[in-house]
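To make the argument concrete, we let one protein speak, a sequence paired with a row of structure tokens, as a model reads it:
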Amino acid sequence: MDRDQLADFLRTRREALQPEDVGLPRGRRRRTGGLRREEVAALCGMSADYYSRIEQRRGSRPSEPMLAAIARGLHLSLDERDHLFRLAGYPTPARELRMEHVDTGLMRVLDRLQDTPAQVVTSLGETLLQTPPAVALLGDETQYTGLDRSMFHRWFTRPDARRIYPREDHDAHSRAFTADLRSLAARQGPAGRAADLARRLLDTSPEFARLWSEHEITAERGHLKRVRTAELGVIEVYCQMLFDLDQDQALLIFTATPGSESHEKLQLLSVIGAQHLPTHP
């Protein structure tokens, strides 16, 4: 580990990041530009003391998961993230794991949507980040591990994954997920993660196997979705997608028609937040 260069690199990235870039208020008492160490630590999900030790050239070498958290908290680009890993004495993450790094542009937009249900997902349906209203609406989708990180896998193997959607909408969701996975598998090739997931689902889900055999490429779908919540009932939301340049990640933003009952319910979700309003029936 190049302790000096690592500390200097983190300091310069922290000082270059403005509060507005991460959705924080600047405040009247802020005398200098950039973020404070404790603010960066909060964004990275670690203690201020731990982060400060790294910047002050003290402490042990951070682990790879810690470095990934720092890269995300500092909104580093892929090249900057790889540089961070090299300075800490680690090889750069493999190319197929790069989709785990949230696109900087999408993260900037998400930071400004903290009062709106929004989340960043990979092309394989893995949720990387959620705003509090998104957790309140859909549940915490970042908690899963292994194959269950993919919504495609959960949908066809875990009955509880379907509970937030009305039963009459299940077939449309199944067809959309199957078509999306088929398209992704064709783009990545037979050695890609999508093709591997499809093979696993063919062995475990008769429903997926039936739909896969139909070779449906574009399933009928719309931006309007219906989501069931325990406290507020069904909410009709429009799902808009903003993709990154490589189409490996997307920012999903959920809105409702102004003046409608669903719009009022979404506003209530934003006020109450995920910690006080359980969503799964």
About this structure: The radius of gyration is 21 Å. Residues 274-281 have pLDDT under 50 and may be disordered. The first strand starts at residue 118 and ends at 122.
